Amino acid sequence: MSTNVLSHFGVLDELVQVIYQGFDRFVVLSQVTESAWSIYLGLKGPEGRWWRGSWSAKHILDITNGVQSGPQVLENFAEKLRTTFVNGDLTIGEWADKDSDINLTFGPNAKRPLHMALKELSPVEAASHATAVFIEIALQAQSRKCQLNPLFSPRNVAVIAESSHANSASTFPSRRTPLGPGLPALVVNQGAERKIKAFEAELARSKERSPQSDTTSSKPSEPSASSRPPKGASLANPNKKARKYQVLEFESDED
Protein backbone atom coordinates (compact mmCIF):
# COMPACT_ATOMS: atom_id res chain seq x y z
CA MET A 1 0.00 0.00 0.00
CA SER A 2 2.82 2.38 0.84
CA THR A 3 4.32 1.80 -2.61
CA ASN A 4 1.05 2.76 -4.31
CA VAL A 5 0.76 5.96 -2.29
CA LEU A 6 4.37 7.09 -2.69
CA SER A 7 4.38 6.30 -6.40
CA HIS A 8 2.43 9.54 -6.84
CA PHE A 9 5.12 11.53 -5.00
CA GLY A 10 7.82 11.16 -7.65
CA VAL A 11 7.59 14.89 -8.41
CA LEU A 12 9.08 15.56 -4.95
CA ASP A 13 12.18 13.43 -5.47
CA GLU A 14 15.62 15.11 -5.78
CA LEU A 15 14.48 18.65 -5.11
CA VAL A 16 16.72 21.23 -3.43
CA GLN A 17 15.92 24.68 -2.06
CA VAL A 18 17.57 27.40 0.02
CA ILE A 19 15.81 29.09 2.97
CA TYR A 20 16.90 32.43 4.41
CA GLN A 21 15.64 33.02 7.92
CA GLY A 22 17.10 35.93 9.83
CA PHE A 23 20.88 35.72 9.58
CA ASP A 24 20.80 31.95 9.03
CA ARG A 25 20.80 30.08 5.74
CA PHE A 26 19.46 26.55 5.32
CA VAL A 27 19.55 24.03 2.49
CA VAL A 28 16.55 21.71 2.07
CA LEU A 29 16.74 18.38 0.24
CA SER A 30 13.68 16.33 -0.73
CA GLN A 31 13.93 12.58 -1.29
CA VAL A 32 11.27 9.95 -2.07
CA THR A 33 11.71 6.21 -1.54
CA GLU A 34 9.32 3.26 -1.54
CA SER A 35 8.72 3.62 2.18
CA ALA A 36 8.64 7.38 2.88
CA TRP A 37 9.03 10.94 1.69
CA SER A 38 12.00 12.44 3.56
CA ILE A 39 13.28 15.97 4.10
CA TYR A 40 16.89 16.79 5.03
CA LEU A 41 17.66 20.24 6.39
CA GLY A 42 21.22 21.57 6.73
CA LEU A 43 22.37 24.75 8.47
CA LYS A 44 25.23 26.71 6.91
CA GLY A 45 27.91 27.38 9.50
CA PRO A 46 30.91 25.91 11.29
CA GLU A 47 28.78 23.47 13.28
CA GLY A 48 27.48 21.62 10.22
CA ARG A 49 24.12 20.71 11.77
CA TRP A 50 21.58 18.55 9.92
CA TRP A 51 17.96 17.58 10.63
CA ARG A 52 15.76 14.91 9.13
CA GLY A 53 12.01 14.37 8.90
CA SER A 54 9.76 12.02 6.92
CA TRP A 55 6.15 11.17 6.11
CA SER A 56 5.12 7.57 5.65
CA ALA A 57 2.26 6.42 3.44
CA LYS A 58 0.01 6.23 6.49
CA HIS A 59 0.83 9.80 7.46
CA ILE A 60 0.06 11.00 3.92
CA LEU A 61 -3.28 9.18 3.89
CA ASP A 62 -4.21 10.74 7.23
CA ILE A 63 -3.70 14.18 5.72
CA THR A 64 -5.66 13.35 2.56
CA ASN A 65 -8.71 11.79 4.30
CA GLY A 66 -7.56 8.19 4.57
CA VAL A 67 -8.26 5.31 2.22
CA GLN A 68 -10.80 7.35 0.28
CA SER A 69 -7.94 9.29 -1.33
CA GLY A 70 -7.77 8.23 -4.95
CA PRO A 71 -4.80 8.55 -7.31
CA GLN A 72 -5.94 11.96 -8.55
CA VAL A 73 -6.17 13.31 -4.99
CA LEU A 74 -2.68 12.06 -4.18
CA GLU A 75 -1.22 13.49 -7.38
CA ASN A 76 -2.80 16.88 -6.75
CA PHE A 77 -1.51 16.88 -3.18
CA ALA A 78 2.02 15.99 -4.30
CA GLU A 79 1.94 18.65 -7.01
CA LYS A 80 0.80 21.27 -4.50
CA LEU A 81 3.68 20.36 -2.20
CA ARG A 82 6.14 20.53 -5.11
CA THR A 83 4.91 24.00 -6.12
CA THR A 84 5.24 25.22 -2.54
CA PHE A 85 8.75 23.79 -2.35
CA VAL A 86 9.93 25.24 -5.67
CA ASN A 87 8.49 28.68 -4.91
CA GLY A 88 10.36 28.72 -1.61
CA ASP A 89 7.21 29.16 0.44
CA LEU A 90 8.92 27.46 3.40
CA THR A 91 9.91 28.46 6.91
CA ILE A 92 11.67 26.86 9.84
CA GLY A 93 9.37 26.51 12.82
CA GLU A 94 10.47 26.44 16.48
CA TRP A 95 13.83 27.93 15.50
CA ALA A 96 13.78 30.34 18.47
CA ASP A 97 15.03 27.56 20.72
CA LYS A 98 17.91 26.31 18.60
CA ASP A 99 18.69 23.38 20.87
CA SER A 100 15.29 21.72 20.45
CA ASP A 101 13.76 19.83 17.55
CA ILE A 102 12.32 22.03 14.81
CA ASN A 103 9.88 21.63 11.93
CA LEU A 104 9.59 22.60 8.29
CA THR A 105 6.42 24.55 7.49
CA PHE A 106 4.89 24.39 3.99
CA GLY A 107 2.84 27.49 3.11
CA PRO A 108 3.16 29.46 6.35
CA ASN A 109 0.67 32.05 5.09
CA ALA A 110 -1.90 29.50 3.88
CA LYS A 111 -5.16 28.76 5.68
CA ARG A 112 -3.93 25.28 6.61
CA PRO A 113 -0.13 25.20 6.62
CA LEU A 114 1.52 21.81 6.85
CA HIS A 115 4.31 21.01 9.31
CA MET A 116 6.87 18.25 9.08
CA ALA A 117 8.70 17.52 12.33
CA LEU A 118 12.49 17.45 12.01
CA LYS A 119 14.90 15.76 14.39
CA GLU A 120 18.58 16.68 14.55
CA LEU A 121 21.09 14.13 13.31
CA SER A 122 24.20 13.18 15.19
CA PRO A 123 27.54 14.46 13.84
CA VAL A 124 28.29 11.03 12.41
CA GLU A 125 24.90 10.82 10.69
CA ALA A 126 25.25 14.39 9.38
CA ALA A 127 28.70 13.68 7.90
CA SER A 128 27.47 10.44 6.36
CA HIS A 129 24.52 12.18 4.73
CA ALA A 130 26.68 15.04 3.42
CA THR A 131 29.04 12.53 1.84
CA ALA A 132 26.15 10.71 0.18
CA VAL A 133 24.88 13.98 -1.30
CA PHE A 134 28.29 14.82 -2.78
CA ILE A 135 28.57 11.36 -4.28
CA GLU A 136 25.24 11.90 -6.07
CA ILE A 137 26.47 15.26 -7.35
CA ALA A 138 29.71 13.68 -8.62
CA LEU A 139 27.83 10.87 -10.40
CA GLN A 140 25.58 13.36 -12.17
CA ALA A 141 28.59 15.49 -13.16
CA GLN A 142 30.17 12.57 -15.02
CA SER A 143 27.64 12.98 -17.81
CA ARG A 144 28.83 16.61 -18.14
CA LYS A 145 32.55 15.67 -18.29
CA CYS A 146 32.80 16.21 -14.52
CA GLN A 147 31.60 19.81 -14.91
CA LEU A 148 29.93 20.87 -11.67
CA ASN A 149 27.91 23.67 -13.29
CA PRO A 150 27.32 23.17 -17.05
CA LEU A 151 25.64 26.55 -17.51
CA PHE A 152 28.85 28.53 -16.93
CA SER A 153 31.55 26.48 -18.61
CA PRO A 154 34.77 28.37 -19.53
CA ARG A 155 34.07 27.90 -23.23
CA ASN A 156 30.61 29.49 -23.02
CA VAL A 157 31.90 32.37 -20.92
CA ALA A 158 34.68 33.06 -23.46
CA VAL A 159 32.23 33.08 -26.36
CA ILE A 160 29.86 35.44 -24.53
CA ALA A 161 32.70 37.80 -23.60
CA GLU A 162 34.04 37.84 -27.17
CA SER A 163 30.66 38.57 -28.72
CA SER A 164 29.89 41.37 -26.27
CA HIS A 165 33.33 42.95 -26.94
CA ALA A 166 32.79 42.82 -30.69
CA ASN A 167 29.39 44.48 -30.39
CA SER A 168 30.72 47.32 -28.26
CA ALA A 169 33.78 47.87 -30.51
CA SER A 170 31.93 48.12 -33.86
CA THR A 171 31.21 51.83 -33.80
CA PHE A 172 30.40 52.27 -37.49
CA PRO A 173 28.81 49.09 -38.85
CA SER A 174 28.23 49.04 -42.60
CA ARG A 175 24.63 48.79 -43.76
CA ARG A 176 25.45 47.44 -47.23
CA THR A 177 27.87 44.68 -46.26
CA PRO A 178 27.03 43.23 -42.84
CA LEU A 179 30.02 42.07 -40.86
CA GLY A 180 30.63 38.37 -40.49
CA PRO A 181 30.53 36.83 -37.02
CA GLY A 182 34.26 36.05 -37.12
CA LEU A 183 35.52 39.49 -38.17
CA PRO A 184 37.75 40.97 -35.45
CA ALA A 185 36.70 44.23 -33.89
CA LEU A 186 40.14 45.72 -34.75
CA VAL A 187 39.36 45.58 -38.49
CA VAL A 188 36.12 47.44 -37.88
CA ASN A 189 37.92 50.22 -36.01
CA GLN A 190 40.58 50.57 -38.71
CA GLY A 191 37.97 50.82 -41.45
CA ALA A 192 36.07 53.49 -39.53
CA GLU A 193 39.29 55.41 -38.88
CA ARG A 194 40.18 55.42 -42.59
CA LYS A 195 36.75 56.77 -43.48
CA ILE A 196 37.09 59.55 -40.92
CA LYS A 197 40.56 60.54 -42.19
CA ALA A 198 39.36 60.59 -45.82
CA PHE A 199 36.43 62.78 -44.85
CA GLU A 200 38.70 65.20 -42.96
CA ALA A 201 41.12 65.42 -45.93
CA GLU A 202 38.26 66.16 -48.32
CA LEU A 203 36.97 68.84 -45.96
CA ALA A 204 40.43 70.46 -45.78
CA ARG A 205 40.76 70.55 -49.59
CA SER A 206 37.36 72.16 -49.94
CA LYS A 207 38.38 74.85 -47.44
CA GLU A 208 41.57 75.55 -49.42
CA ARG A 209 39.65 75.97 -52.69
CA SER A 210 37.01 78.29 -51.26
CA PRO A 211 39.23 81.47 -50.78
CA GLN A 212 40.46 81.30 -54.42
CA SER A 213 36.97 81.11 -55.77
CA ASP A 214 35.92 84.06 -53.61
CA THR A 215 38.88 86.21 -54.84
CA THR A 216 38.15 85.39 -58.46
CA SER A 217 34.47 86.22 -58.12
CA SER A 218 35.21 89.58 -56.45
CA LYS A 219 37.12 91.00 -59.49
CA PRO A 220 35.05 92.88 -62.13
CA SER A 221 34.51 90.85 -65.21
CA GLU A 222 36.34 92.07 -68.33
CA PRO A 223 34.60 91.80 -71.65
CA SER A 224 35.88 89.02 -73.76
CA ALA A 225 37.38 89.56 -77.20
CA SER A 226 34.33 88.10 -78.88
CA SER A 227 32.05 90.60 -77.15
CA ARG A 228 34.06 93.67 -78.25
CA PRO A 229 32.74 95.46 -81.37
CA PRO A 230 35.06 95.21 -84.40
CA LYS A 231 37.33 98.11 -85.18
CA GLY A 232 35.58 100.76 -87.16
CA ALA A 233 32.12 99.45 -86.29
CA SER A 234 29.34 101.73 -85.15
CA LEU A 235 28.86 101.86 -81.43
CA ALA A 236 25.12 102.29 -81.87
CA ASN A 237 24.84 99.40 -84.28
CA PRO A 238 27.89 97.16 -84.19
CA ASN A 239 26.82 95.39 -87.42
CA LYS A 240 27.27 98.58 -89.42
CA LYS A 241 30.42 100.48 -90.03
CA ALA A 242 30.72 103.83 -88.44
CA ARG A 243 30.35 106.78 -90.73
CA LYS A 244 33.42 108.84 -91.47
CA TYR A 245 33.05 112.53 -91.40
CA GLN A 246 35.47 114.63 -93.43
CA VAL A 247 36.42 117.93 -92.02
CA LEU A 248 35.42 120.75 -94.32
CA GLU A 249 38.10 123.28 -95.04
CA PHE A 250 37.30 126.72 -96.28
CA GLU A 251 39.67 128.82 -98.29
CA SER A 252 40.57 132.08 -96.78
CA ASP A 253 39.63 135.39 -98.45
CA GLU A 254 43.26 136.22 -98.88
CA ASP A 255 43.63 133.48 -101.44
Show the helix and strand layout:
Layout: H1 2-6, E1 15-21, E2 24-32, E3 36-43, E4 50-56, H2 57-63, H3 71-86, E5 90-93, E6 102-106, E7 114-120, H4 123-141, H5 154-169, H6 185-218
Antiparallel strand pairs: 1-2, 2-3, 3-4, 4-7, 5-6, 6-7
Q: Report low-confidence residues grouped into runs of 5 or more.
A: 168-188
Spatial sequence of strands, sheet with the most strands? 1-2-3-4-7-6-5
Question: How many strand units?
Answer: 7
Number of H- or I-type helical stretches: 6
Major beta sheet summary? 7 strands, antiparallel
Instruction: Assign the structural class, choosing from mainly alpha, mainly beta, alpha/beta, alpha+beta, or little secondary structure.
Output: alpha+beta
**Molecular shape:** elongated
Q: Please report the distance between the alpha carbons of the first and last residues.
A: 173 Å
- Mean of residue pLDDT values: 76
Give Rg in angstroms.
49 Å
Percent of sequence in beta strands: 15-25%
Which sequence of SSEs, written as H and E, runs from N to C? HEEEEHHEEEHHH
Relative helix content: 25-40%
Please provide a written account of the structure.
The protein is of the alpha+beta class and 255 residues long. It is 38% helix and 18% strand. The chain has six helices and seven strands; from the N terminus they run αββββααβββααα. A seven-stranded antiparallel beta sheet has the order 1-2-3-4-7-6-5, sandwiched between helices. It is elongated, with a radius of gyration of 49 Å. The termini are far apart. The relative contact order is 0.07. Mean pLDDT is 76; it is low at 168-188.
